[in-house]
């Protein structure tokens, strides 16, 4: 009889121990899952923060460009066009202003005959129509409108076309620029005295344009 009771008592104890171990495993598993969730959230928050930081632009930065065969460096200052919803860097010695709806201008402080007009084009731009409008504007400068090439910025911009016209005093050049990942499609028109080739400074500033 005592032997039977001893066996029964041993069986009860083993059953109780097994139940305790299962509860302990379940409890530990619950804690493990709970601990992992904040780590995943932290990783996502870090990714979001990183993405936000990529959109922040410095208030100023050095800009390099070639001017009449000489390499130049000047400080560029961050400006925003509320008129056309983009930001860009404007070189020291140049002034950026909103001219009228859908048109901004940058002019050279030392000689306001050197200036550039910036027109942001819609996503569904009709390039043939815009090109005809550009050619018509150039014909007001001279009936001899020339198709031009831009060697310095061919890898920077994707040009639809470049045309220029000159008279005895002035040269006007139209650049039709296709959109990129960060930059909108644009029509850039640069006005200079006929004796100067100082357009790279303007193209360098245009190169810094990014959508807001």
From TrEMBL:
Residues 37-47 have a biased composition (Basic and acidic residues). Residues 21-54 are annotated as: Disordered. It comes from the Bacteria. PROSITE patterns: PROKAR_LIPOPROTEIN. This is Lipoprotein.
């Amino acid at each position: 009889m005592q032997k039977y009771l001893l066996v029964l008592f041993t069986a009860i104890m083993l059953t109780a121990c097994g139940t305790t171990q299962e509860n302990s495993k379940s409890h530990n598993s619950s804690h493990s899952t709970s601990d992992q969730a904040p780590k995943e959230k932290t990783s996502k928050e870090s990714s979001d923060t990183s993405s936000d930081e990529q959109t922040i632009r410095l208030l100023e930065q050095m800009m390099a460009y070639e001017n009449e065969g000489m390499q130049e460096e000047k400080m560029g200052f961050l400006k925003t066009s509320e008129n056309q919803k983009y930001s860009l860097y404007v070189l020291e010695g140049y002034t950026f202003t909103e001219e009228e709806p859908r048109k901004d201008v940058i002019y050279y402080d030392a000689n306001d005959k050197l200036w550039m007009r910036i027109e942001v084009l819609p996503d569904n731009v009709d390039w043939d129509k815009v090109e005809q409008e550009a050619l018509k504007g150039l014909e007001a400068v001279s009936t001899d409108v020339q198709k031009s090439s831009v060697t310095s910025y061919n890898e920077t911009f994707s040009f639809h076309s470049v045309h220029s016209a000159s008279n005895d005093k002035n040269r006007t050049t139209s650049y039709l620029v296709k959109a990129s990942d960060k930059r909108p499609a644009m029509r850039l028109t640069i006005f200079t005295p006929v004796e100067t080739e100082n357009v790279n400074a303007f193209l360098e500033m245009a190169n810094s344009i990014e959508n807001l």
